[in-house]
Amino acid sequence: MHKTVTASLVLASLAAAPAVASVFPETIEIEKIPGAKQHNIVFILTDDHRYDAMGFMDHPFMKTPHLDSIAAEGVHLENAFVTTALCSPSRASILTGLYTHKHRVIDNQREEPDDIVYFSQFLQKAGYNTALMGKWHMGEESDHPRAGFDHWMSFEGQGEYYPPYEGYTLNLNGGRIEQTGYITDMLNEHAVNWLKEQEGSDQPFMLYLSHKAVHANFTPAERHVGMYDGKVELPENHKPTDYGPNTPRWLRDQRNSWHGMDFPYHSEVDITTYYQNYAEAFASVDEGIGMVKETLKEMGVYEDTLIIYMGDNGFMFGEHGLIDKRVAYEPSIRVPMVMQWPSKVEGGQTVSEVVANIDIAPTFFEAAGLKTPDYMDGQSYIPLAQGKEIEWRDYFLYVYYWEKNFPQSPTVFSLRGDRYKYTTYYGLWDTDELYDLQEDPRETNNLIADPKYKAKIEEMQDALFEILSEAGGMDIPMNKPHGWERNKRYRVRGGEKAADFPEHMVLDKPERDNAH
């Protein structure tokens, strides 16, 4: 007798069977560094903050005095990157110390795997009092407390800058509290109050302050609206005439899309005003950094507390004709990262090595006097900040997996070194890319067809797939489509036509003359 197989049965069986073996440990086992002390940790994370949107980076109009003070008193990690420029995958890499293809959080729609393990669970077992306040965003409709946090305040999905209706609530330790005003202010105040509760305790603490800001739609606090009137300068952006002969087709086409300058978010939004709102929305984040630092001073733990600030991914305001993130270009994958630890790290330094979000958890482990578990991909960069000579990575792997919700962005695999970046795409008839970031920091001259770089391309391609092959990376993770699909184009701006093929892929005569 034949059994009828329905679509629901197939989906259920797929959901029940893991694609690859899990890399996460079944139990939390800590290994202490002999003689090491446990230090307090404060981690401040923002959303969509560009690597150059900081005052000390000579930004043309943004003022970030409190953020600047971390760099002045500590270290600027000038080449900091994320493994996937998308909220949930990036945050999962921060929390697990793993590349995206290992932790398997590949989009913003679903919750994290059941067997996932966070660095906070190790710190908690080592005796830390741990707290998360703000954006979690692994699961659009989920804000329940996660493992590893003694104190929890969060919201569903992206959250709201201001309460969208009377009675809108946040999750506080499994219960509900009303959002009483501007979310950045509320998170800052809650973080400061929690820190004050730790004063005098013998127990070390770890605060994970995770802001909604500066995610779209960018909304500044009312007191900051207009602070940059008449001062806004957009980053250098690429007009169609700037595209070189080897620019990918998908990139030219994406300009007229949800993530493109010609049809941004399927609207005619003024990008200059958009950028101003973005910059003004950061002002309250910067104020909060100052509040946290002042509180640590009042508690008497300032000198001995490790503070790290970073963004979860970058953001484009016109570069390559695009807005938003996801792609492998520098403004998308490069993030701001500064740290201070006055008792351990000399101030006013710059670290140039390529560091990433996968290095955050191992860095916290070292500050906590713990050895990093072997299964993690990252490593602590505290020795780099202390000027020590250590073995460090030659290349950094970037991945982004295609989402049906945003079909204009292909699956991306990219390898970024100190000088060169090689990018290839999966399931796409288009050109790969190679850029000399030293000579071409804006990534306008694709060297992929230049015979002088054949050996470099082969070297980076081999290294990319070697890293990717570890722990199931050659199996493309997929999720069932969820929600809406942003697949429209704008006719009045040439939306009915596709881009031409890159020049080096087009022949004037047959390549072979022996085909029969």
From TrEMBL:
Belongs to the sulfatase family. It comes from Ferrimonas pelagia. InterPro entries: Alkaline_phosphatase_core_sf, Sulfatase_CS, Sulfatase_N. Residues 40-369 form the Sulfatase N-terminal domain. It comes from the Bacteria. PROSITE patterns: SULFATASE_1. The lineage of its organism: Bacteria, Pseudomonadati, Pseudomonadota, Gammaproteobacteria, Alteromonadales. Residues 1-21 form the signal peptide. This is Sulfatase. Keywords: Glycoprotein, Hydrolase, Signal.
